[in-house]
Amino acid sequence: MTPITEVEGRRISLSNLDKVIYPASGFTKGEVLHYYAATAEVLLPHLRDRPVSFLRYPDGPEGQSFFAKNVPPGAPDWLRTAEVPRSDGNTRQVLVQDLASLMWAANTVTEFHTPQWRAEAPARADRLVLDLDPGPPATIVECCRAALWLRDRLRADGFHVYAKTSGSKGLHLLVPLKPTPSERVSAYAKALAVEAEQEFPRLVVHRMTRSLRPGKVFVDFSQNAAAKTTAAPYTLRARREPTVSAPVTWEEVEACEEPEQLVLTAGDIAPRIAEHGGDLLAPLFDRGLARALPEGGKGGAR
User: Fold this and answer.
1) Distance (Å, rounded) from C-alpha 281 to C-alpha 176?
2) According to the model, what pLDDT value does residue 301 have?
């Protein structure tokens, strides 16, 4: 019989708790659910009010995975949803607002991906993201080198800049913004990527073309497009181990000399939250730190 649990007054069916999701470490579905429950306090603010796209991998990272955006059949009627505009017509997506909806979603075994805007203001970004993706043999070490230049460049334009691992191979930079049309944010982010490539042509590439990327860091600015989503902070990833897209300090970025230094898994997160006194990305929610794009949206002070 499928276990039923009550979370914040909501009855939720939990299934296959002993199923091994990450064979390399024996990490089970029950442990996946426990991880999300334990990190809910820091994870939920990054999901709340943002239409969630789910990358589901119910049979583990070596099984089939697929993106799910629409509200799935059989979803509980108490789930909050939002209408999301698309080029091919509007759709409805889930809002993960509380522990109950988080546990319902986690039971499907998923990565959580969100846009840079909130449901009440589609295509008006309140944060900028740069996804630094290394082309082998480059690693996150090279991403850190590029990140430090981009951090200083963004600071020169008056921004506050924060970092997290992608949970895969790379690094994400996040910047709180005053709400701005996504197309303007994308243009500004592209200009930064181009400038970084001009500054470090042997290290950085701004185009997605695969043949250009070996040994370089691709600065993916396209994540700022209104239709795009990025792995949310604290989400587990469908990798060999239960790696997490985890916030990191700039001291850790500066000190990174081996890729293993910034591989963070589910078991690392609770101690890090305790060590740092909470979420390293909490400043993203401080409206006093949000800044507007420079005039013209394509660069400013250097």
Assistant:
1) 10
2) 39
How many Cα atoms sit within 13 Å of 251 on the Cβ side?
A: 2
What is the rounded CA–CA span in Å between residue 180 and residue 296? 12
Per-position b or e across 194-218, b if 16+ CB within 10 A of its CB: bbbbeebeebbbbeeeeeebeebbb
d(C-alpha 149, C-alpha 176), whole Å: 18
Phi/psi at 71 (5° precision) = -60, 125
Q: How far apart are CA 22 and CA 242, in angstroms?
A: 7
> Hey, what's the torsion of the CAs at 112, 180, 224, 120, to 10 degrees?
30
pLDDT score, position 1: 56
At 88 the pLDDT is 79
Is pLDDT of 19 > 90? yes
For residue 239, give the amino acid letter. Answer: R
Residues for the chain: how many in total?
302
